[in-house]
Every structure is written in structure tokens, then in C-alpha cells.
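Protein record
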Amino acid sequence: MTGPLVPFREVVLKVHSRCDLACDHCYIYEHADQSWRTRPKSISDDAISWTARRLAEHASQHALDSMSVILHGGEPLLAGPARLRRVCEELTSALDGIAELDLRIHTNGVQLSPRYLDLFDEFGVRVGISLDGDRAANDRHRLFANGRTSHPLVLRAVELLRQDRYRHLDLGLLCTIDIRNDPVAVFDALADLDPPRVDFLLPHATWDETPLRPDGSPTAYADWLLAVYDRWTERGQEVPVRLFASVLSTLSGGPSLTESLGLAPTDLVVIETDGQLEQVDSLKSAYEGAAATGFDVFGNTFDDVAAHPGVRSRQLGLAGVSETCRSCPVVRSCGGGLYTHRYRSSNGFDNPSVYCADLAALVRGIEERAAVSLGSAAVTDPAELVAAGLDVNRTLLAGLHTRLGGRGHDGWEEAWSLAAEVERTEQGAVALDEVLAHPFTRAWLREANAAPDGLAHADRAAGRLAVSVAAAAVRARLAAAVPVEFADGALFLPTLGEVRIGGPVERGRVLVRAEGEGFLVLGADAGAGRRVASLTEEGPDWLPLRRTGGDGTPELVIDDLDPYRMCFDVPAAARLTAREAGDLGARLALAWKLLRERVPAQAAEAAETLVTLTPLATGPTRAGGHGYGALGIGDDGGEEELALALLRGFRRTKFQALVEVTDLFASDGAWNYRVPWNPESVPISQALSETFERVGAGLFAPRLLNGVRHALDSIESAPELTIDGARILSGLRKEIIDGAQGTSGEERLQGRF
């Protein structure tokens, strides 16, 4: 295994190896590893001194600013105040001037008293108490050896910690889940104690010793936790719950907050009462000696443990989980589950968690419940992405008004005032939004905002705004007459079509007013101009934008007239003949039939968001400098080639739209990433965009899925990724999983991901 050692920032120090309770779910006493029987009950002075020395050595060598030490057992309070004082004194002294020491203790609370808490106050030792809920829940497992309840004594300890003089030491409550207990009653009992935090723990289990499932449900633990989540939400999330906070953090692209979830490398080492250095002690649930390293504090450093193969295997992030987990869309959140829970005697830890179905259901359940707070809705909701695109156009338009209106440009001010008038009615506001949301609106707004200040720039922008307002007034059937400029003898109304007014070089000013199912174009003389009786029927002076679709093909506008359709890197075609338009419609129908058959989900989304196709003069189908919802359609061969080109183009424009409305990466170009289909390393923006396009297209053409998994793995932990960038990656993994459902899908994807 390669890569630098990950230094330990957390040490679990076993100060006593026996317990005063007989909890039947305890991994130390009731599971596979019984090494506690041969260890000294209490840690020795020598082991304490060497532990302190190793802590200082490790912190100094790795320039750590802090280290956390958790006093543990058995039951650590059985070590007694004098031994605990010795531990606190030696550790504090050793790290003085080197690193800050964060001391904690995890206890069942039975022995807790003011003499302990006064000691802990002196050294800043924070206290976590194990409590499984109300008395009925707690007494299911946490009893004395004679069967007597521990619940009243634990409540007494909790109340003691709640006193003003000790409250600052309260670390919170740890609850081991038993799905036979009422989840709401358990949570209410814990929350009513007003702890600073609650931590829910899955009971330790492996594939050899599977968890209790009374009704056989593969998601029983997720169902239990989601019931707690719902109750937690009902109560206003008054108490932090670490498990929920961790899932929400990872769903948002942040770090895991618990060892049991997420892909962060392990940075914890355990020191037993005899000075033995071990891996995380939950491994004792797997088999005898699973946690052992063969090292001890007397002759070995913490770096020796950090280099141990068992520890290194838990520092590999995504590469350290099973093949099944690497291709799972929720792996960033669940991290394959707690390492211990992956164990099977036949193949070790190279498995998903025995709680795999629970973890997936839990992550998805929390994601659904908290979707509003997890970044931009545009990432997961196509309608929100379209709406966000309109907001971008509105923002660009407002910026242009600041520039041009502020300079007092008469044409702009007139068009702006007419837009405000159109928006005063509900139907006018809707119609203006429809025009402003059109993909080519983005093209003219970009041009206008990028152009240097000047009269030509201002006149062109004002003219486009005016015809946009006129088109909205016609669509809304408003009586207002909108003044517009025409050139070259023609007037184009965005989203509608072109009306011929005069000769090829004629220019002028006319009024446009809705009438019946069409509109009037009026000149200076009220009786002059043109009358368009129908917006959809072609006439001698009227060329409407044609529409194609039906019989399973979405209705799309063939825009071969808009002056701003010239936003592709090749020229757009001139006006199609009726036959050419019919041939294009027939090609689209065949291609769309293939899309519906092979990638139905993507076909449905494209049908909802694509609005315009512009025929290109040359070359294949492509995206251009427009807003979401348009493609330039070219010569792509037969229906299969056209279907793939449409899909790739749609994915490209969708990614462009996402980049415009949300931050997918915090910076670009600081690091480069390898994607298998590109011989050069590329910045995160290119790696993510190419992978986004390739996943969508690869579900249609499986050859394009070659190397996708490696690309996802490469950028999974990219430091530049934001909340929404991480959600994009999770969505890509889910697309692949969902796309492979069913026999035909499995055959298409076999060996490709």
C-alpha cells in the first residue's frame, strides 16, 4: 500500500478492563475476542508513562495541533480517582507546549459522583454516558449481573452532569440501537434529558453473526432510525444527533463526523491496560485477535501501528471498500459502513456492511427528507434547473438595464417601460417569462453584456428587448401596441416567427399589436402594414417557427430564423423548405424512439426541458452559446447516431446550465485529474463535465462507460468539490445503478462499470 502515513489524532486508552454491569450486547465481553480475560484489570504506572511519551512523540513528529484521548474500559471509573488522576497528570504534562490535549471519558455512569467530576473539571475531561433510552429500553441490555436495573443510577449521573458547575463537561449520550424498542419513546427519553448531543450506535455484527431482525426486514434498522429522524425533526432538531449530522454533512459534500460512516481514513489507535497497541476495538466482534497488531507502547511508536496493514487498509478511502460499495451511489455517505461490520470468515473484510441495505435506505431517507437544505434544488429537479436559468436571464437583463438605462438610452428605456406594462397582467407576466426563458435569450444577453459601451451595442440590445416584449404581448393576447424596429425588410418576433414588411434593404419603425389568433403590424399610417391571421400557418408575408413532434416524440421548435441562433461554432442553416423540415421531423421520431427504449428516464427529462432545435449548415449535433433547452442539430448519420448525438448534446447543455446556476467546484485548475479516455490530466471542471456527459451517453452506448468508474473514483475526493458537486457525483453513480436494472440493462452494462 502506498501513500503517506495518516497520523493518529485520537487515542482510546483502556484504563480498566472490567465492568460493573453485565450488558449482554457488549462487544468486549460477549463477542468473539475474549482477550480481556488475560489483561490486568487496571493500567499500570509504567504503561501510563510510556503512553504519555508516545503521545508527545507522535504529536511532535507530525506537528499535530491537538490530540484526543478517550479514557475507556471496561468501565473506566472502576480505575478509581487516584489512577485516573495519574493518567490525567502524565498526559497533560507530556503534551504541554506540544499540542492541545482533548481528554474524554466514556462511562456507563453507575459510579459517577462529584469526586470524579471535580477531578474531571480540574483537567477538562468531558464525559459521555451510555444510555439506551427509557427504563424499558435500557433494561433490555444494561443490567447488573444479578439482573438489577441500572437505569436510576444512570439518570442520577446524567442529572449530576446537568448541574451548572459540571454542565461544561457534558459530552452527551450514547445509545446502542435495539429495534425491538420503540424509537420515538427512546428518542424522547434521551432528548428530555437535554444532552448536548446524542449518538446512536448500530449493534456490532458481522456476516457470520448477523444482526437481530425479528420481522426479517433488510432495512429494519434504517426504518427505526428514520422514525427517530422524523421525531427529531418534529421536535425542531433541538438536540444534535451525530449520526444524522454525519449523513447530512456527507450528502452536502462535507466530511463524515463518525468513524462508522464516510470515507475518511481512520486516525484512531487503542492502548490496552497492558500497553498493547491495537486497532479499533470494535474489531473484537469479528474474531479472536482481529484488533491485535503485535505492538506495544514500551517498544513501538504510533507510526509502527499506522504502518500496520490492517490500519492502512482503513486509510484508502474509496479504494479501501469492496467492489460492490465502490459502484454504489451512497458510498460517499456510508463509506461502506463500519469496518467491523464488513467481516465474513470466508473472505475477511472485502464485503459491504452487514447493514448495507439499512445504510442505503437511511441515507436515501434522510436525503429525501432534507432535500431542501442540501444545496441547489436545480441539481436534482429539472424544472428547478429551467427556473434557475430564467433567473439568470433576469439577472443579466437587470445588469444590462443598469448599464443602458443609467445612461438614458431612449430606445432601451422605452422597451423597459413596455416590459413593465406587459408584466402588470398575469397572462402578460407568464408570456414575458416564456420569451425570456427561451435559450437564445441567453445568447443576446451575453453579447450585450460583453460588448463595450457604444451606440451600436445599445441600439441592438434595445431592439431585441423591444421585439421580445412584442412577442410576449402577442402570446398573451394583450391590446397594447408595442413599437419595434425592423431591418432588411423583415421583423423577427422571438419564439414566434418572421414577418416580411418591405424590401431587402428597407428599415423602419412599426407597431405590433395582438389581434384574434394573430397580430397586426402597423406603420406610421394607421391603415398600412401587415396582418398575420394565424401564428402557426405560413402565409405570403409570415414565416412561423415550425414545430415537430407527436407519437412519442416531444414537441420541439425548429428555429431556423432567429438572428441569435448563430451562437454555435459553425454557421446555422438558412430557412428549411417544408420537405426538409418534414425529413428532419421523421429523423427525430426514429431517434427519439431509440432514446425512449434504451434510456427512458433521460428521454423523459429531455422531453420536458428541450424546447428548440436549430439546423446547422455543417457538422454534427452540438451545444452552443445559448441557455438551457436548445441544440444545434447537424448531420449525424442514421437514427442511432442521431439519438446518441442528441443525448450527448443534451447532457452537455445540462451540465453547462448547472455550472451557471450553482457552484459545483470551489476552484478550477489547482489540481488535475486523470480520466481514462483523455491522455492528459485535466482540471476538475473538464473531468466532471466529461464524466457527466459520458455517463448519460454510456447508458445508451455501453462502450462509453469504459473507464467511467475510474473517473468517478479519481474525482470522488476532489478538494474543490462543493456540496452540489458531490451531489452530482452521487447522482451519476445512481444513474448507472438505475440504468442497469433489468436483464437487458445488465447485459448492456456487464463489464462496463
Remarks:
- The CA atoms of residues 87 and 256 lie 30 Å apart.
- The radius of gyration is 34 Å.
- The first helix runs from residue 45 to 61.
- The mean pLDDT is 88.
